[in-house]
Amino acid sequence: MSDNKMSSLRQKVWRKHLPRLVHRNTRPENPYNYYSVHLVDVANHRYLLEDYQEGFALLTRWDYKSHGYTERHSVSIAELDEMQVEIIHHRRYGPVSFAGIIAFTFNYYTRFAYAKSLASRGKGKLVSAFFGNKELKSRDRIALLNLLVNEYIQQPPSQLNSGVTVNEVIEMLYGRLWYKHIRNEEFRRKVTLLLKSLVITDDLLLRDERYFVQPKSVATIAEHEKEERRNKQQIKIQKNIVRLMLVITAATLLITLVLLAMAGVVDLHKIWVYITNLKPFRILFKLI
């Protein structure tokens, strides 16, 4: 019942916002304020919203052979609601993406996503202005490979190609304002080197200046995680051994002192008085 109610709500919202999305889905004179609606059906066909007439949405399907939106389809609001959707608001300072019509409606009235984007841009400018001479956190090849695998799995409807370019990878790692950083060329060289190393090990495939994730990458990540768990276990064992040695040493020292006291060689009372008179221990005892 709840699914039916949510579906009815989404369809109602679609009917309300489709005219607005269609009216501004082509680049007007101002190319920094328009929408694009990307959709994917159960057969993994990718569509772009083109028009809305008499209760039906007109979609154009992406043709992988001609590399363009060619074939047109007319779908109802109910069929449109069953597709995976991504609504992108293209703005001057970068696109703002919404994973569904409900998210778009919420942010359309609250402007929450736009405020978040503004804060992100402000943070990027501050980092570039005040911390531009500092090196960002390094990314090793396994972390980069894991990022690319996750990006491949969570491929949004607007991403027509499963491969990524060097610039797209840098943007994932350092944000959209990476090119303003004082070490932007260093970022490019480092990421390019890491990507090429992953190509050599057959974890990635380079084709037409795009890097594609290969099945071997999953095995590489799994092996790395297994090695990390083994290393953590070894470190844990070493720490436990050190703790045990400290306990044994302390116990041996106490037993030795007791034996010496029983033999009359040392006076434990004098030793205790001497220890308690030390300044650090005196302060500690006062606190206790």
Relevant terms:
288 residues, alpha+beta, Arc Repressor Mutant, subunit A, 3 domains, 6-stranded antiparallel β-sheet, 10 helices
Summed up, the domain count is 3
Q: Over all CA atoms, what is the radius of gyration?
A: 31 Å
Shape estimate: elongated
Tally the helices: 10
Report helical residue fraction. 55-70%
Overall residue-averaged pLDDT value: 79
Strand order of the largest sheet: 4-3-2-1-5-6
Number of strands: 8
Distance between the termini: 63 Å
Poorly predicted runs: 131-139
Specify the biggest β-sheet.
6 strands, antiparallel
Class derived from helix and strand content: alpha+beta
Order of helices and strands: HEEEEHEEHHHHHEEHHH
Strand content: 15-25%
Description:
The chain has 288 residues and is α+β, with helices and mostly antiparallel strands. It has three domains: 2-110, no CATH class; 141-218, Arc Repressor Mutant, subunit A (Orthogonal Bundle), CATH 1.10.10; 234-287. The chain is built from ten helices and eight strands. It has helices at 2-23, 77-81, 101-110, 112-130, 141-153, 166-174, 184-200, 216-262, 268-277, 279-287, and strands at 33-40, 46-53, 56-63, 68-76, 84-91, 96-98, 204-207, 210-213. The strands form two sheets. It has a six-stranded antiparallel β-sheet with strand order 4-3-2-1-5-6. A two-stranded antiparallel sheet has the order 7-8. β2 (46-53) and β3 form a beta hairpin. α6 packs across α7 (184-200). It starts with a helix and ends with a helix.
